[in-house]
Amino acid sequence: MIGAGVAIVPSTHPNELKYIIHELDVVLIMSVNPGFSGQDFLYSQLDKISLVKKMIQERNLDTQISVDGGVNLSNAAKIIQAGADILVVGSAIFKAKNIKKTINNLKNL
């Protein structure tokens, strides 16, 4: 499958998507400022996730929300509750003492 997506950084307001969201298969919300791994999740992005989810639901779209940056076991449930469909998890897995257990815990949220 080939799809269309867009990534937005923390400073991008969700309203920037309103004219193109109906064309998108996925919106990637960067929950850290791009540049290096291991940054802390910016909790201000939870509101953005919720706003984008509302925009998708109001338009009855199948667009998915992916979140990348600082995702870990302590915040993943909140990110999902805000409306994320896909979680991109890097450092929280690769720096875990037990990678398999961390992955299983994330899958079970």
Automatic annotation (TrEMBL):
Protein name: Aldolase-type TIM barrel,Ribulose-phosphate binding barrel,Ribulose-phosphate 3-epimerase-like
Organism, as annotated: Cinara cedri
GO molecular function list: metal ion binding; racemase and epimerase activity, acting on carbohydrates and derivatives
Entries under SUPFAM superfamilies matching the protein: Ribulose-phoshate binding barrel
Lineage: Eukaryota, Metazoa, Ecdysozoa, Arthropoda, Hexapoda
Segments forming a coiled coil: none
A GO BP annotation: carbohydrate metabolic process
InterPro entries, per database record: Aldolase_TIM (IPR013785), Ribul_P_3_epim-like (IPR000056), RibuloseP-bd_barrel (IPR011060)
Parts of the chain that traverse the membrane: none
Keyword set, alphabetical order: Isomerase, Metal-binding
Gene3D superfamilies recorded: Aldolase class I (3.20.20.70)
